[in-house]
From TrEMBL:
Gene3D superfamilies: Glutaconate Coenzyme A-transferase. InterPro entries: 3-oxoacid_CoA-transf_A, CoA_trans_fam_I, NagB/RpiA_transferase-like. This is Succinyl-CoA--3-ketoacid-CoA transferase. Keywords: Transferase. Transmembrane segments: none annotated. The keyword Transcription does not apply. NCBIfam families: pcaI_scoA_fam (TIGR02429). GO terms for molecular function: CoA-transferase activity.
Length: 232
């Protein structure tokens, strides 16, 4: 089934205020840049965003935070965004911080139809408040529920017209598990080829999980923290 759409505007049709979105990426690596920029233009508000982090102040999800379009963030790491910090401390933004492994597993569980699972991560901290606790082999575990979204928006290096995706290096990060957990999954890619041109053994996300795919117009690929070694 051909799943290509002409542009980001077509890909994001149907996204409305108040929806829950999953957005792939880690830091600024592997984020769906074109889609995020278009969400800003769309002006949708009261969004619940599930993402490893909230970008930086002037890029990634930070652009949506600037416009006060996000109501709640479900994240693991948020240390690079001053506006995020300000909104969280002022009570303008609801925040659910989750251990990174638990966040990945909750997304994976959602994509696999697993409603919940037990994990020791977070026991004895605020993460465990209000959650069921059960002992396994004498060790306490907390019950974590699966995460799903109205739309999952991911970024891949290469994809084909049937929605099969290949990620490049560390840009894979949260993208594969989130691609599985959206009711509708949108993939923006750098390279778009015809069906049959990808080696099946190299595909990371099968096209069955993707409903829309488009070729992004521009990828800035910013570096979040650049550290270089001084010359001797």
């Amino acid at each position: 089934m051909r799943k290509t759409v002409d542009n980001v505007e077509k890909a994001c049709e149907g996204i409305e205020s108040g929806m829950t979105l999953m957005l792939g990426g880690f830091g600024l690596c592997g984020i769906p840049e074109n889609s995020i920029a278009h969400l800003v233009e769309m002006g949708v508000k009261d969004l619940t965003c599930i993402s490893n982090n909230a970008g930086v102040d002037d890029f990634g999800l930070g652009l949506l935070l600037q416009k006060k379009q996000i109501k709640k963030m479900i994240s693991s790491y948020v240390g690079e965004n001053d506006e995020f910090e300000r909104q969280m401390l002022s009570g303008e933004l609801e925040v659910d911080l989750i251990p990174q492994g638990s966040l990945a597993e909750r997304c994976r569980a959602g994509g696999n139809g697993i409603p919940a699972f037990y994990t020791p991560a977070g026991y004895g901290t605020e993460v465990a408040e209000g959650k069921e606790v059960r002992d396994f082999d004498g060790k306490p575990h907390i019950l974590e529920t699966a995460l799903t979204a109205d739309y999952a928006i991911v970024k891949a290096w290469k994809g084909d017209t049937e929605g099969n995706l290949i990620y490049k290096g560390t840009a894979r990060n949260f993208n594969p598990v989130m691609a599985m957990a959206g009711k509708t999954t949108i993939a923006e890619v750098e390279i778009l080829v015809e069906a049959g041109e990808l080696d099946p053994n190299e595909i990371h996300t099968p096209g069955i999980f993707v409903q829309r795919i488009f070729k992004g117009e521009k990828f800035e690929k910013r570096i979040e923290q650049l550290t270089v070694r001084k010359k001797a």
